[in-house]
Amino acid sequence: MNPLAVFDIFLLEALLSGVLLGGVLALLSLGLNLVFGVIDVVWICYAELIMLGMYGMYYLYTVYHAPIWVAAVACIVSVGILGVLLHVLVIAPLLGAAPINQLLATGGVLFFLQSAATVLFGIEFKNLGLRLPVLKVGGMFVSYSRLLAFAAALIGMVLVYLWLTRTYTGTAIRAIHPFVGLSFGPITFLICVLGSLGNFVGGFVAAFVFAEIISVGGLYLDLEWGYVFAFAFFIVMMFIRPQGLMARRS
Amino acid sequence: MLELRAVCAGYGTFQALFDVSLDVKAGEAVGVIGPNGAGKTTLMRAISGLIRPTSGSIRLEGTDLAATPSHRIVELGIAHVPESRRLFPRMTVEDNLRMGGFAPAARPKFRQQLDVVYELFPRLRERHRQLAGSMSGGEQQMCAIGRALMSAPRLLLLDEPSAGLAPVLVEQVFDLVKRIRAGGLTVLIVEQNVQQVLRVVNRAYLLKAGSIRATGSAAELLATDTIREAYLGV
Amino acid sequence: MRRAHPWIGGAALVALPFVYRSPYPLHILVIILIWSFAYTSWSVMGRFGLVSLGHGGFMGIGAYVTALAWNYGHVSPWLGVPLALVAGMVLAAVVAYPCFRFRITGHYFALVTLALSGIVLQVITATRDYTGGSLGYTPERYHGGSSLWALQFSEKTTWYLIALAVWAGGLYVWYRVDRSMLRYALEAISEDEDAAAATGIHVTAEKLKITVLSAGMTALAGALYCQYQMFISPDTVSGISVSLQMVFAVVVGGIYVSLGPTIGAVITILLAEVLRISFGTRAVGWDNLVYGVLLVLFIVFLPKGIVGSLLDLRRRVGWSSS
User: Comparing C-alpha atoms, which of C314, C285, C140, C226 is closest to residue A118?
Assistant: First the structure.
C-alpha cells in the first residue's frame, strides 16, 4: 500500500503543485521586483514582454525548427533588447513624472503588446510542442515544465544576487518558460508588493504562499476560488502588516 | 493648560521620547530646545495627535488628548505648524489658509479669521492668489503660521519655525512670533536655534535624547552651562 | 463666463434623438453616455490622486446585483438598482476604510483595489451556477416588450434619454464636489496627508466619503449598462481590464476637467468602433494596438489629457494676445 495514502493524496498533490506554481510565480516576480527595486517604476506590461519571449520560442523552435538552445538564447536577447527599448522610449521620459503616469504608460504598452500579439499571432493558443513528461511520484502527478520553472527560479535567485545591477537579466531569464494559458500579470505585482518591493527573498516567500493558497483553495473549491482567496489574502496582509510596506515608502 | 505626564512615544520599535513631562500655562510662551534628533518633532506630533504616545498622558485642560483623533484636537483649540512648514504647494495662499479653518466649528468664522491673519501678515493678503509653493521661505513660514491661526486656536505649536531659513529671515520669523504673542496666544515652540527662541519665550525645557534634561526661565537657562553641555555633548 | 453654453448644448443633446433616429449611431451614443458616466464616476475620486483599480469591481457589482435580484428575487430594478448601489458602496467602504485608516496610499492603494477587482471577477466566474460564469448573463425579458416596472425598453430613444440624464447627473455631482469644501480637503490630502491632518482635516473620513460616492456612481453605471444591453459578462463589466480601461480613458480625456472623462469615452469608443468596422473581422487586436500606442503618446506628451491641454493652450494664447 502506498505509504503516502495516510495523507490526503489530493491535498499533497495540490500542495506540491502549489510549490511548483510558486516557482513560476517567483520567477515572474523576480524580474519585476528588479525593475521596481532598481528604478522604482511599476511595469504593468511586464508579463507581456515574457509572452513575446514565449511567442519567439514558439516560432523559432516549432515553426522554424531552430535548435532549442539557439531559440532560447535568441529570445532572451531580443526580449532584453525590447526591454531596453521600452525603457528608453517610454520609461525614461517619464522618470520624473507622477508615478501614476508611469503606471499608465506601461499600461499602454501592455495594451499595445497584447494586441500586437493578437494581430501577429492570432488568438488561439500556440503549443510549443515541447512535450515534457509528467512525472509520477508516489501516485501524484507533477508537471515537468513547472518543475523546470521551479529550478529556473532557484537558479534565477542566485543569478540575481550575482548580477544585481543587470536589470534585464532577470527579465530575460523568465523568457524561457513556455507557460501559456493564465495571465500572471497582476498576481506578479501583488507578490512583489507582498514580499516588500525590492526584497528578493520576501518576493520569493510571497510567491510560494500565494501559490499554495491558489493551489489548495483550488483543490477544495474551484480554481477561481483559489484566486479569490489569494487576492483577499493580499488585501488583508496589506492591512495587518503595513509596516513592512511602509519601510519602502518615501 | 497643557499637561504632559511621563509621555513615551516613538515610531514602530524606535522610541523617541522617554517619560517626558511638561506644562504650558495659559498665556505663556514655552520653548523646548535641544539638538537635532532629540525628539522635538515627535513631541509636537504626539501633542497634536499625529502619533499616539505608547504610555503617559497628554491633557488639555483635563481632556485626554492621547485618546482624541487629530482633527478633534484641532477643534479643541490646538493648532500645529509642522516642521518645514508643510504647506500645500500647489494650492493658493488663500486656499492654504482656508484649509486651516476647515474644522466645522471654524468654517462660519472663515472671513473674520482671514481678516485677522491678513491684518497680522499683510504680505499674505498681497499674495493671496499666488501658489504657496512659489513663495519665498519666509513667506511660506508666514503662510504656515497663518494657516494654523485660521482655526482660532488657544494653543499654537510651532515646530522649528526657523529651519531652513536665512539668518535675516530667522529674525523676522521670531518677530512674527512676538507679534502673535502680543495677542495673548499661548505658544509652545520647539527650536534648535537657542539664542533666538529664548528671546521670545518665558520658560524653556531642554530636551536631549528623548528626555527632559533641564528646565527654567529663559534667563536661567542662558546663565547655566546646561545648554552648552547638551549641544556639545560634554 | 459662458453660462448659456451648457444649456444650449444640453437642449441640443435632448433634441437629438427626435431629429435623428438612426438606430446604430444612437446605440453608440447610449454606450458612450453610459461609459462617460462610469469614467466620470471614477474621476470624481481619481482626480485627487486616489487611483482606484477597483472600479471594475464596483461596476460588476452594480450590473450583477441588479440582474440577479431581477431573475431570482423578481425584484424590480427600481429596487434592485438602489440595492446594487448600496452593495457597491458597502464593498467600497469595507475595503477602503482600512486602506485609509492604515495610510495605504499611491501604488499600494491602486494594488489593493486591483486585488478587489480580481476578487469580484473571480467570484462572478466561480459562482457560474448562478451567474453564468464567463459565458455571461441575461436578465429575463419582461413579457417580451417594454416595461417601466422592469426598466426594460425596446425603444432606443428612451434609453438615450435615460443615459443622457444619468450622465448629466454625473457631471452635476462632479461640479458639486468641485465647489465643495470636500474638494479642498481632498486636494490638501493629496498634496500632504500629514499636514492636512495637522490642520484639522479628518483624512480618513474625507477620503471615505469620496470613495463611497464614486463607488456608488460606478455601480449605477454597471446597473444601467446591464439594463440597456440586457447581457453582461464578467469581462465586459468587471475585473481588472475594465478598471484599467476607466483609468486610461480618463487620462486620455483629461483627469482634472469635468468633461475630460466624457471626451475620453468618446475618443476611445469611437476609435474602437471605427477600427472595428474598417478592419472588419481582421481587426481583432488592431483597435487595442492603436489604442495602446495613443495612450503611451498621450501620457508622455499630453499628461493633462486632451481637454486639459487644450485649456492650457487657450490660456497661453490668451495671455500672449492680451
Answer: C285
Task: Output the CA torsion C46→C52→C54→C60 (10° steps).
Answer: 10
In angstroms, the first-to-last Cα distance of chain B is 35
The interface pTM score, or ipTM, of the predicted complex is 0.83
Which candidate from B69, B79, B99 shows the least CB-CB separation from C196? B99
Q: Give the three cell numbers for residue B10.
A: 516613538
Q: Per the structure block, which three cell numbers stand in for C218?
A: 460606478
Is residue A132 in some structural domain? no
What pLDDT, on the 0 to 100 scale, is given for residue A46? Answer: 61
Total domains in the fold of chain B: 1
Q: Residue A89: inside a domain, yes or no?
A: yes
- Show which residues on chain B lie within 8 Å of chain C, measured between beta carbons: 48, 50, 69-71, 73-75, 79-80, 82, 86-91, 95, 98-100, 102-103, 106-107, 147-148, 151
Mind listing the pLDDT tens digit for each residue in B163-209? 888 888 888 888 888 888 888 899 999 988 888 888 888 899 988 88
At A154 the pLDDT is 54
> The domain spanning residue B157 has which CATH number?
3.40.50.300
Of B90, B102, B107, the CB nearest to C199: B102
pLDDT at site A7: 54
Tell me which amino acid residue A236 is.
V
All partners of chain B with 3 or more CB pairs under 8 angstroms: C
Does residue B189 lie in a domain region?
yes
Residue, of A222 and C12, whose pLDDT is higher: C12
Asked if C305 contacts C251 with a C-beta cutoff of 8 angstroms, the reply is: yes
Q: Does residue B3 fall inside a structural domain?
A: no
Range(s) of the domain holding residue A49: 3-122+137-246
Q: Is the CB of residue B133 less than 8 Å from the CB of residue B92? A: no
Sheet order of strands, B203-208 included: B78-81, B155-159, B186-191, B29-33, B203-208, B211-217
* Domain total in chain A: 1
Provide the pairing of β-strand B186-191 with B155-159: parallel
Report if residue B55 sits inside a domain. no
Counting DSSP H helices and E strands in chain B, the numbers are: 10, 10
When CB atoms are compared, the residue of A101, A117, A189 closest to C299 is: A101
The segment with the largest mean pLDDT, out of C105-109, C161-165, C304-308, is C161-165
User: In which residue are the cell numbers 520560442 written?
Assistant: A57
In a domain, A131, yes or no: no
**What pLDDT is stored for residue A66 in this prediction?**
66
CA–CA dist B202, B161 (Å, integer)? 17
Is B127 part of any domain?
yes
**Which domain range does residue B42 map to?**
26-50+69-232
* DSSP assignment letter at C215: H
Segments of chain A with pLDDT less than 50: 1, 4, 39, 123-140, 142, 157, 159-183, 243-250
> Residue A183 falls within a domain, yes or no?
yes
Q: Angle CA(C259)–CA(C265)–CA(C270) in degrees, nearest 5? A: 130
The pLDDT value given to residue A197: 52
